[in-house]
Structures are given as structure tokens and as C-alpha cells.
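Human: Not sure, check this?
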Amino acid sequence: MKHYMRAIVGVVLAVACLFFAFRGIDYHELWESLKQANYVWLIPAMSFVVVSMIFRAFRWRCLLRPVKMVGFTDLFSAINICFMANNFLPARSGEFIRAVLIGKKHRVSISTVLATVVLERIFDAICVMGLFLYLIFSFTVEEKWKKAGLGLVVVYTAVLVLLVLGRIYSQSVQRVVHRILSGFSSTFAQKICRLIDSFLQGLTVLEEWKQVALILIYSVCIWGTILATYYFLCGAFGVHMTPQGYVLLVCVLAVAVMAPIPGYIGSFHAAYKAALLVFGYPSSLALACAIVAHGAQYVFITILGVLCLWREGISFGRLRAEEAGAEGELGHVHPEETTAHHAATKGGGITSR
């Protein structure tokens, strides 16, 4: 039932966003813009999509290195499957799926792998913060965008600080959690503490500053390739903006894809259109550009994901089963977790590591 509710919410949000995206559009002008586009520009755009996936795989390998050495090919495959799954499943379910795929294949706790996925998003957020800061100090950007940027900077900084403190003071965190929950159920408290311990293991890379610096470099490369992707996608329609224009576009899209909509249908289009309107482009041209930018990436990423599914010998039906079972997996204790927990526990169910 929970999955159906997510799907319903996703569809409702998609319809609402599509309504705003297509509101007031001249469909004749939209069609003309689509016909006159130079689709050759999609070739370098999709090439940069592949490059960004490669950088993501290298970054994920760095994040997992303190826990388990995982091959580049497995990580690249899991990432492509993740992005493909996000095209069809609500609430970014692909993130759970790739954590399950790598966790099961390499016998690593799913919650530990999931922690590295969370760290990925934090490093992505740092890069988006940098782009927003660039906009904040750009006098060509409206005040409302500056305020939005400052708000996100505060939120992302707070999350990052909490994760770092959680890793540094992991023992204290577990004591506090156990004391709070043990009043309700000692068994439940121990289970939550084991999950927290497993999750914090995935944050081990935060203790290695050289790895953190390398991860940050990979993250910058990823967002550089994203900016390049949208430079070429816009170029297909003769849209050539200042650096602020591309930065604003990418920042607005980064916020839009947070919506729990399968494939970001609607939210992507509305955000893309809104960003181009800021720089004076006609709404029909802006929407045409959004349709092609979304459609090209949607189809291309789906093809990559299907090829990776074929490599892994997994059907899409099994993917759905993995997604449905991901939350259940987090509620169970793996043999590796149990052994580590008992070896490091000193009474009361508190991990003293």
C-alpha cells in the first residue's frame, strides 16, 4: 500500500507540474521550435552524460574503499540501473536498489552502502551550494534566487556538520539513542543501534582527508560535466547564455528533481522553462528545449540501465522486488553486522566502538 501511495503522489505532482509547464504555451510555436532544433548537439550532450556516470562510479568507489573494495564495472552498472529505476519508480527508489545490488553482491550491509549513497548526495549538495554561492554573488540574479540559495547553503551545511559529528562521536550517538529507545523496548533499541552502527561504518571515509579531497574533486568533475551537458542541450535550440544562465538552470533543476516524481516528469519541464524565462527566452522555445533535454536523457539513461540489467542478469520485475524489499532488508541484521556488534559490545546493547 505504501508503494501505491508513493506512486499516486508522484502522478499527482507530475500532472500539476505539467499543467504549470504547458500553461499559456502556443503549440504552433512549440512545434516549430522542435522542428528547427539541431539535434546533432545531442551527441556531445549524451557523451557528457556517460562521462558523468564514469566520474560517479570512481567517486562511489572512493566512498566504499574503507569498507570494501568494489570493482569499477559493478559500481558503474549499479549507478546506471539506479538512474534507470528513478525514471520509472517514485521517491528516487533507485538509490535503495543500487544499495541492495552492491550490498548483496559484495556481502556488505545494506545500511552501510546506503550511508555512502547519502554521502554522495552531501557532496553533490556541496557542489550545488558552490553554484548557488556563485549566483548569490552575481548581481545579474534576482533577489529571490539569492535568498533561495542562502537557504539551501544553510540546510546543506547543517546536514554535513551533523554527519561529520555523528561519525566522530558515534559512540555517544549510540548511547543517547539506546537510552531513549530502551524505555520502550530493549530489543528494538539494540536493533536500531546496530543499524546506526552499520550506517556510521559507511561514513568512515570522512576520517581520511585525502580521500575526502579526492571525492570532492570527483564531485566537481561530475557537476562540470552536468553543466557541459546542458550547454549542448541548450545549444541544440540556439540558446546560448552567460555562465550565470547555465548555473541557474542546473541549480533550479537540482531542486526540481528532489520532487518524488518518477523520471522527474513535469518538475523538470517546469523548472527548465522557468530558468530560461529568467533570461528572456520565449516560453514555447524554453519548453521545447526542456522536452528534448528531458526526453534525450530519459531515453539514453534507460537504454544504459537496460544494458546494465542485461549484464547483471536481472529483470525489471526483480528490480521491483528489490525495491519493495529494500526497506525490509534495513530492518534485519546481517550475519556480518551481528558478529561485529557482539565483538564490540559491552553490556546493555551499546556498541563501544
